[in-house]
Amino acid sequence: MRVVIALGGNALLRRGESLSAEVQRNNVFHAVSLAVAPIARDHQVVITHGNGPQIGLLALQSAAYRQVPSYPLDVLGAESEGMIGYMIEQALAGALPGRDLATLLTQVEVDPRDPAFAAPSKPIGPVYGEREAERLGAETSWVFRPDGGGYRRVVPSPAPRRIREIGAIKLLARAGAIVICAGGGGIPVVALPDGRLRGVEAVIDKDLSAALLAEELEADALLLLTDVSAVWTQWPMEKGVPIGPISAAALRKLSFAAGSMAPKVAAACCFVQRTGRFAGIGALQDAPSILAGTAGTIVQAAASGVGQPLR
């Protein structure tokens, strides 16, 4: 099977954890050991990942150095792709010695007229207290929104339209390499009339990019991995039940918070309805079982039940 594995930002760096390189290395090692390596031993795997905390930290570091203008988000996105891809490659080299590995900086084309540019919604960076968020907002042009018990910076999140390096990704995958690509949703670019590409100030939703990637690669399965066991009917978990096998049409009828499961649900349904294959949403440590259809929320074109609760 060809499997696209999307490692969520919460799977790589949990809320409240330090953004240090050492913490991230340990989390990446954990993700590769539990989720990626067991699947890659038997299947062809392409990996993508989130970058919200990392690109936010890079933006802070860039803004702190005032000798030059702050780097734009497309450049910081490229930096985060390289950094996280490097860590994933190191962990994979230890878990799967002898396998060919490749991290590919991936440009993803968006529509310059996408309404998302006028309505920033994608949270990046750390969580701040109210006063700190107000101070940063006054010093910069950044927009902050409530997130849990604090505030996070939000940026535009346009929909992905085209993966520019898809040919190279297919070439590497066919050659047997484990490819790490489209990290953080990919580097957001727009196509100019003369054919050149220009980066834009945005962060593409990585789940929607993962769905597009899986579709264009003709993947057999898309796994969207995070820090919870499944999609829940209501959140917090005490108010709902986890959803087991469900059809894409039935799942689309349910409502989920925009900042949590909504992008994963939309991505899973989009992939399933366009390809007729299946997608799974669930916890990192359950990845092999999600692929086997025995854990997580399994989204199919038609399911034997409508949102059967997991037991």
Would you write up a description of this structure?
With 311 residues, the chain is of the alpha/beta class. It has a domain of 171 residues: Acetylglutamate kinase-like (Carbamate kinase, 3-Layer(aba) Sandwich). The chain is 37% helix and 22% strand. It is built from ten helices and 15 strands. It has an eight-stranded mixed beta sheet, with helices on both faces. Helix 2 packs across helix 4 and helix 3 packs across helix 4. The C terminus is likely disordered.
The CATH superfamily of the domain at 2-110 and 158-219 bears the name Acetylglutamate kinase-like
Percent range for β-strand residues: 15-25%
Strand order of the largest sheet: 3-9-2-1-12-14-15-13
Number of helices: 10
The counted number of beta strands is 15
CATH class of the domain at 2-110 and 158-219: Alpha Beta
- Shape annotation: globular
CATH topology (level 3) name of the domain at 2-110 and 158-219: Carbamate kinase
| Rg, nearest Å | 19 Å
Helical proportion, percent range: 25-40%
- Point out poorly predicted stretches: 305-311
Characterize the biggest β-sheet. Answer: 8 strands, mixed
The structure class reads alpha/beta
Q: What oligomerization state is this entry in?
A: single chain
If classified by CATH, what would the architecture of the domain at 2-110 and 158-219 be? 3-Layer(aba) Sandwich
Mean pLDDT: 90
The end-to-end distance, rounded to whole angstroms, is 28 Å
Order of helical and strand elements: EHHEHHEEEHEEEHEEEHEEHHEHE
